[in-house]
Amino acid sequence: MDIPKFDETFLPILETLKTGKIYKTRDLIDEVKARFYSELSEEQLRQETKSGDLLIDNRIAWGKSYLKKGGYVFFPERGYVQTTEKGKNHSASLNVRDLENESSLFDFYKQETAKSNTNTISETNVSSPQDLIDEGFKRIDDDVKTELLAKLKGTNPYFFEKVVLRLLKKMGYGEFIETAKSGDGGIDGIINEDQLGLDKIYIQAKRFNDGKVRETDIRNFIGAMSGDTNKGVFVTTSDFDNKALEKARSAHHKIICIDGKKLVDLMHQFNVGIQVKTTYEIKQVDEDFFDEQ
User: Fold this and answer.
1) Cα(219)–Cα(221) distance, rounded to whole angstroms?
2) Would 255 be classed as within a structural domain?
3) 150 in Cβ contact with 235 (< 8 Å)
4) pTM passes above 0.70
5) Domain count of the fold of the chain
6) Is 281 domain-assigned?
7) What is the pLDDT of residue 113?
8) Are 119 and 42 members of one domain?
9) Strand-strand pairing, 176-178 and 189-192
10) Domain range for residue 56?
11) CB-based contacts of 66, cutoff 8 Å, min separation 6
């Protein structure tokens, strides 16, 4: 079962409200989830929007807001919701397109020129404002990560090693020691997890433009690790073939393999090699402000 789009929550909301009972918004969301979306996995139920709200809760809340704009529900008092007569006699296939002529809110989504095609309009109309924001951020993030990986592949190998070590330090893995650029035995850096260096993590960073990390690369890395550590991190800008991953999993050492996609995800998360360009504020009405009257 997929997480419903916001307009797919219309009928479950109205079905829950059809008795005429007044619901607290939080109780309504919980009951809609329990009655209609109990098959969602724990992972789906924990999925969040960019603003940190639970995605399923956010979509039900937007569904409620759109139904209010269309006259299907109303808010008898702050924090409560109840169906209207229109809501009790709704269409059996009510969706966002049925509300288009009932609320000026949807003027926001109408295209300004006749050049836009029907598919674009349809896709926009089934996305809540929060979904549109999240999708926009995702596209920007994906573009940044694609460019970041291309930059990494174009750096010299020694600089790439520094990038990996800086990332691991930013992630909280302690001070690192760069090894000599020749005769390092396949080890590009060593991280001391404690101040005395009793716990060490050995690092191997391979910048590849083409091809994958092979089993022999992992085997050589294991062979280069001295007897005073059993932890290693192998990082590449490309990928690992299946035999390489199997060799890492079956080794007596604990070896973490980080491919190009995972690498740029981590760099993006910990702001390594990127910077914040713009911060946007999302505002909403302050209900407490109006409680003072």
Assistant:
1) 5
2) yes
3) no
4) no
5) 2
6) no
7) 38
8) yes
9) antiparallel
10) 6-127
11) 6, 7, 10, 96, 99, 103, 105, 128
